Amino acid sequence: MQFHDYHTHYQVMRHRDRNNPMVGKGPESFYQDYMRHLQSIYAHGGAEMAGFDPFTPLLMQLQGDWHAAGRPYYNLWPSIIPALSKLRLDADSSFFRLPLDQLLLRFPMDNNPLVWQDSLGQQWGVRAVLAQNIQMHTRRGPTNVKFYDAHPDITGNKRGMAFWIDIGEAVEDDPAKPHDPAGQIHSLLYKHVICEQDRTIEWSFDGMQNHWSSDMGVTYPDSIVRDIARLVCTLCLMAEDTSLVEPIVLKSDEDKYEATGDASLVAKAKRRGNYGFNVGRDIEVAPHVRSASPAALYWTGVGRRVPRIRFRRGTVVHRKRLAQVPTGFLDKDKGNE
């Protein structure tokens, strides 16, 4: 099974020209220099970047933080995507928090259910989602991390989760190699949900607003955006389930890890630049029950107040897999992809 990659601005610029002085010192220095460069362009025109483009600074900060965290990612296997994206989450939104503060969700190249056609008949599909835990505020609240148009029913500083959706909509090609995927910068759609106590996550879904810029470029169906929001949230409730979320080890260590569960093999893969997890690799959905979701929201803990996502008996199978997952690197910093 192969999954789509996501290329940050640093990776794109490094791919285009490894001798570019902006990329020579690594991601942290690159994003500092890149933002200074962009801000100087706006200042030369007598404008502030945040007033015209509130999104680019946020995305650059997230990309830099994701690099610093080791570029962690989840591979979402095809069978688990509809099982999670169709769940209704009538649970207190304060329980929802990403297992890692920055996390990339990678979608399968084949059998991806999150696809659609635009008005011209061109097919689009969700390739990747870069998500993060955030502190946000309304325009009437304190100035912490600025996110546009928070939910109209709240004021002040709030915790939430932001996510950026990549469908492969290219807005800039490499001048030297047009149409080279690794040299393209993509347009991403930004959304967030609010995690407020005594409010359900469904309430937060209903409050996701559209910025005027969402009308530019490809139009995303509301159903796709809602499905992605559910995926992000359901992953918060199943991260500790080792039967569903499995760390990825190097290909040469797969048999040994399956036999022993040796955590040092996971640490080895992470040192080699592969900080990833398979999600739902062992989910098996029988054809005659596809209409019913094998996943369900359960209430656990003291007083049955803590929500968790579990799969019905017989859905998760443990067997030697025929499909092998590539376990290289998300970029070429240390070797082969």
Layout of helices and strands:
Elements: H1 9-16, H2 27-44, H3 49-52, H4 55-68, E1 73-76, H5 80-85, E2 102-106, E3 115-117, E4 123-125, E5 128-137, E6 157-172, E7 185-194, H6 201-206, H7 222-236, E8 245-247, H8 254-260, H9 263-271, E9 276-279, E10 295-300, E11 306-311
Parallel strand pairs: 1-2, 1-9
Antiparallel strand pairs: 2-5, 3-4, 5-6, 6-7, 8-9, 10-11
Give short descriptive properties of this protein.
337 residues, alpha+beta, 7-stranded mixed sheet, two-stranded antiparallel ribbon, 9 helices, globular, disordered C terminus
Short description:
The protein is an alpha+beta fold and 337 residues long.
Strand order of the largest sheet: 7-6-5-2-1-9-8
Instruction: Spell out the helices and strands N to C.
Output: HHHHEHEEEEEEHHEHHEEE
Poorly predicted runs: 140-152, 286-292, 318-329, 332-337
- Tell me about the largest β-sheet: 7 strands, mixed
How many E strands?
A: 11
Distance between the termini: 15 Å
Rg calc: 20 Å
Number of helices: 9
Shape: globular
Structural class: alpha+beta
Provide mean pLDDT, rounded. 81
Overall number of domains: 1
Strand content: 15-25%
Helix fraction by DSSP (H/I, runs of at least 4): 25-40%
Q: Care to describe what's here?
A:
The chain is an alpha+beta fold. It has helices at residues 9-16, 27-44, 49-52, 55-68, 80-85, 201-206, 222-236, 254-260, 263-271, and strands at 73-76, 102-106, 115-117, 123-125, 128-137, 157-172, 185-194, 245-247, 276-279, 295-300, 306-311. It has one domain (9-311). 26% of the residues lie in helices and 21% in strands. Helix 2 packs antiparallel against helix 4. The longest helix has 18 residues, at 27-44. Residues 140-152, 286-292, 318-329 and 332-337 have low confidence and may be disordered.
